[in-house]
């Protein structure tokens, strides 16, 4: 029997017992990630029922955002990597080329990766649920202390004022707004999809995703709850001092009504917060910055893959950090602590991995 005729493709491979066993083996490799996510989902459910707020459990809120994002990443891969060799193979050999590539493209890691991504969707839903319950547990009482510390660390001046001469131009601000929203979400989808799928990056998968989960849980929920703050953009709302960051909000107001406007998004989030509504992306907490935490994780992972990608991801981290301050989302201290905490978690997970491997 020729090699070509022995290749299993399409739906038959997905129902083959050996193939299904291989898929289960791949899923089992990620069991530590699933355990961490399951514990957080359970904790979110217990907290919601304890507070009498089961309506805040929005476990599947991100389904409609994540799945199209992942599909877009996969489509881009197929168009950029798989399609060109197939088209160049010649009209009479394209089917043969597809048959040869199918076992690799539809390898057991693919359905395992889809299961992992579905679990991440649950994590983001439970994270949002907990984030929306933080204000029920504690008031926003750390903004004044963080703003004072920020000012002291930066020569007696609020950090956004140092950045304003460089970044305070409408076209620069608009670029930062786009990167901070669409760019960040795109990076999140790309990194999680590639790390979930790639067999070449298997040595980084557990470290990346365990760090990922711990960042969302420890930095985004636990530390945020212990030091609950709203951020510069809401400083007036939670402290009564409308002057301190009033000029920053006034400047950012130029983008009102524009696509991906941080000004509009911030006002929408505060309205939803006041209404007590929990949905995709809601919840207010500034310290530490999860945006910066994820950008740090992207940089650490990229450096572990290739130096060129490492430099690019580091540039993204710097832009994200600057954008978080310039756009009023965060105090600079939020980003500094997020970087340090993420690096500590990354190396802690790496050390634990090495000890378990002995």
Tell me what the structure shows.
It comes from Caulobacter mirabilis. The chain crosses the membrane at residues 32-51, 57-89, 110-130, 175-197, 209-235, 280-302, 309-329, 335-352. It is found in: Membrane. Pfam families: PAP2_3 (PF14378). The protein has one domain (10-357). It contains 16 helices and no strands. The longest helix is centred in the middle third of the chain and has 29 residues, at 109-137. Helix content is 75%, strand content 0%. The two termini are 43 Å apart. The chain has helices at residues 10-15, 17-29, 31-50, 63-88, 94-105, 109-137, 143-153, 159-167, 170-197, 202-226, 235-239, 246-252, 262-275, 290-305, 307-326, 332-357. Helix 9 packs across helix 15 and helix 10 packs across helix 16 (332-357). By secondary structure, it is mostly helical.
Topology diagram in text:
Elements: H1 10-15, H2 17-29, H3 31-50, H4 63-88, H5 94-105, H6 109-137, H7 143-153, H8 159-167, H9 170-197, H10 202-226, H11 235-239, H12 246-252, H13 262-275, H14 290-305, H15 307-326, H16 332-357
Helix pairs in contact: 2-6, 3-6, 3-10, 4-5, 4-9, 6-9, 6-10, 9-14, 9-15, 10-14, 10-16, 14-15, 14-16
Ranges where pLDDT stays below 50 over 5 or more residues in a row are 1-11
Major β-sheet annotation: none
In percent terms, what proportion of residues is strand?
Answer: under 5%
SSE-based structural type = mainly alpha
- How many angstroms separate the termini? 43 Å
Report the count of strand segments.
0
What would you report as the Rg, rounded to the nearest angstrom? 23 Å
What is the count of structural domains?
1
Residues in helices, as a percent range: over 70%
- Tally the helices: 16
The average pLDDT is: 89
Query: What string gives the helices and strands in order?
Result: HHHHHHHHHHHHHHHH
State the shape: globular
């Amino acid at each position: 029997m020729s090699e070509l005729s022995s290749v299993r493709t399409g739906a038959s491979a997905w129902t083959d017992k050996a193939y299904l066993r291989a898929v289960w083996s791949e899923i089992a490799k990620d069991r530590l990630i699933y355990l961490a996510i399951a514990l957080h989902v359970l904790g979110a459910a217990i907290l919601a029922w304890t507070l009498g707020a089961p309506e805040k459990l929005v476990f599947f809120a991100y389904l409609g955002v994540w799945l199209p994002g992942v599909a877009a990443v996969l489509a881009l891969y197929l168009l950029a990597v798989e399609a060109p060799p197939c088209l160049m193979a010649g009209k009479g050999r394209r089917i043969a080329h597809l048959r040869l590539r199918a076992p690799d493209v539809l390898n057991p890691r693919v359905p395992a990766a889809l299961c992992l991504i579905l679990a991440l969707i649950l994590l983001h839903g439970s994270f949002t649920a907990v984030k929306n319950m933080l204000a029920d547990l504690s008031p926003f009482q750390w903004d004044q202390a963080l703003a004072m510390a920020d000012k002291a660390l930066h020569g007696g001046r609020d950090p956004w004022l140092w950045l304003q001469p460089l970044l305070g131009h409408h076209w620069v601000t608009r670029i930062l707004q786009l990167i901070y929203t669409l760019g960040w979400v795109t990076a999140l989808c790309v990194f999680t999809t590639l790390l979930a799928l790639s067999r070449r990056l298997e040595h980084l998968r557990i470290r990346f995703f365990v760090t990922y989960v711990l960042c969302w849980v420890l930095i985004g929920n636990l530390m945020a709850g212990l030091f609950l703050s709203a951020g510069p953009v809401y400083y007036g709302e939670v402290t009564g001092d409308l002057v301190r960051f009033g000029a920053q909000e006034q400047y950012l107001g130029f983008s009102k009504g524009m696509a991906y406007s941080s000004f509009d998004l911030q006002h929408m989030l505060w309205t939803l917060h006041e209404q007590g509504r929990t949905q995709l992306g809601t919840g207010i907490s500034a310290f530490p910055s999860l945006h910066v935490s994820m950008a740090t994780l992207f940089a650490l992972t990229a450096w572990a893959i290739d130096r060129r990608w490492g430099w690019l991801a580091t540039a993204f981290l710097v832009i994200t950090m600057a954008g978080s301050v310039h756009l009023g989302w965060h105090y600079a201290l939020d980003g500094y602590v997020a970087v340090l905490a993420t690096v500590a978690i990354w190396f802690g997970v790496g050390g634990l991995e090495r000890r378990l491997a002995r």
